[in-house]
Amino acid sequence: MAKTVIVGGGIGGLAAALAVTRAGRRAGNSAGHRAVVLERADEFAEIGAGIQLAPNGLHALDRLGLGDAVRARAVHIDELRFMDGVTGAHVASMPLTGAYRSRFSNPYVVVHRGELHRLLLDACRRSPAVELRAGSRATGYRQDGSGATVLLADGGQVAGDAVIGADGIRSAIRRQLVGDGAPRVAGITVYRTVIPMERVPEELRWNAVTWWAGPGRHFVHYAIAGGRYLNLAPSVENGVTEAFAGVAVDRDRVRRAFADLDGTARRLLALGEDWRSWSLVDRDPVDRWTDGRVTLLGDAAHPMLHYAAQGACQALEDAVVLGDLLADGRDGGLDDGTDAIRDRIPDQIPDRIPDLFEKYHAERHDRTARITHAARASTRLWHPAGAEAKARNEMLSALSGTALHDHVAWMHGAREFGTTGARR
After folding, report:
1. Contact 360, 329 (CB under 8 A)
2. Which pLDDT value is given to residue 347?
3. Which of 20, 94, 255, 324 has the fewest CB atoms lying closer than 10 Å?
4. What is the pLDDT of the chain when averaged over all its residues?
5. What is the per-residue pLDDT for 329?
6. For residue 45, what pLDDT band results from cuts at 50, 70 and 90?
7. Using 50, 70 and 90 to split pLDDT, how confident is the model at 49?
8. Whole-number Å distance between alpha carbons of 325 and 35
9. Tens digits of per-residue pLDDT, 69-80?
């Protein structure tokens, strides 16, 4: 039996707990794998509003046994709609029904972050193989040839065969493992709020994730919580240099920042109250996020700007790949598929964790780095002005639905989630 200590009780950490504990059962080990999830807060909870889940994220949730539950609670989006935020013109839409769902074998959905977190948390609570510990703030780790131990702020320690740092962009585990300092501040501020859908004019209740693109700024909105609320998220390049999160901001300040957008966009923004602001941060991809029996997952490993709408999806993919590797004990040849070999693998897992974690990093590094760079580059699409914006509109409007699907297929269509593919 292998015991994994997971630092961080957010979406990525809970998904990892489900993946690694299901791994032992899939490998035929009746004892299975165990997981201990350490959450620094006094309770397991998730803040925030909407999460967009492309088909790849839902495929990962299917592998965790939660795909049906998420689809039942989510808003199934009909299209990604791109608007010229200055003129108000509809430039292009990527259809997300019919051919898209057939090609990628899942819908594109939006779910409230809290709802997704609760589904993962409830699944962990139902599992006898998962132990949840709140009020446990990690400060670092130590390891030797036989195990790894998480060090806690109160002087406590939690030992296991492996440690997964899923403790976010300011991860304590990453600080020791990578040591790359503070996150990169992108010079962009995003404002967020949600409003009851009954306050939104009927003619603006589009079943779409909609972007209004303007010079140095853009505005995204979509329905969440089963269509009961509209999530508003405008962003502006304002050169901010300090990291901050969840800071309350006056509604008039938000309106002024987007005063040059089209009247329809301004109508929606005017409905917003109780705005909060975040400076956008990410990190450069690194060549190493694994150290022996310790590895990173999700934002602790590869934090990315939200513009590709893949942060949660990539954390879920990470979890599934880790689960697959622990299930078959694969590190480049031990598992030849024979029953005799496979029957011995579960007992060998603890000794082989460093090799499996190296394989996990190799599987995931290139894909997550590509998405990180794609998210950064997306501002070149959202934020041009004048002639550049006109050229962008002409380029997008000329693309067919199939061409748009081709453009995102490498992200949305993934089923194996790695460089070489992690086997089921």
Report:
1. no
2. 54
3. 255
4. 91
5. 62
6. confident
7. confident
8. 15
9. 999 999 999 999
CA distance 31 to 168: 30
Rounded to whole angstroms, the Cα distance separating 25 from 108 reads: 30
For the record, the structure tokens of 171 come out as 């991860």
Name every residue whose Cβ is closer than 8 Å to that of residue 199 and which is 6 or more positions away in sequence.
271
Residue 25 has pLDDT above 70, yes or no: no
Task: Tell me the longest C-alpha to C-alpha distance in the chain.
Answer: 69
Name the nearest CA neighbour of 295 among 103, 73, 34, 13.
Answer: 13
pLDDT digit string (tens) for 111-146?
999 999 999 999 999 999 999 999 999 999 999 989
Distances (CA, A) of 300 to 113, 186, 205, 219, 237: 18, 17, 36, 27, 25
The pLDDT value recorded for residue 424 is 36
Give the domain 3-183+283-412 fold.
FAD/NAD(P)-binding domain (3.50.50)
Residues 365-387: tens digit of each pLDDT: 999 999 999 999 999 899 999 99
Strand ordering across the sheet containing 157-160: 138-143, 148-152, 157-160
Closest CA to 2 of 144, 159, 137, 173: 159
Contact between 253 and 79 under an 8 Å Cβ cutoff? The reply is no
Spatial separation of the C-alpha atoms in residues 124 and 121, rounded to whole Å: 5
Contact (CB, 8 A) for 83 and 89: yes
Is 337 a residue whose pLDDT tops 80?
Answer: no
- Tokens 């998904």 identify what position? 15
d(CA 68, CA 66): 6
Work out the number of other CB atoms within 10 angstroms of the CB of residue 358.
Answer: 18
Average pLDDT value for residue range 392-414:
97
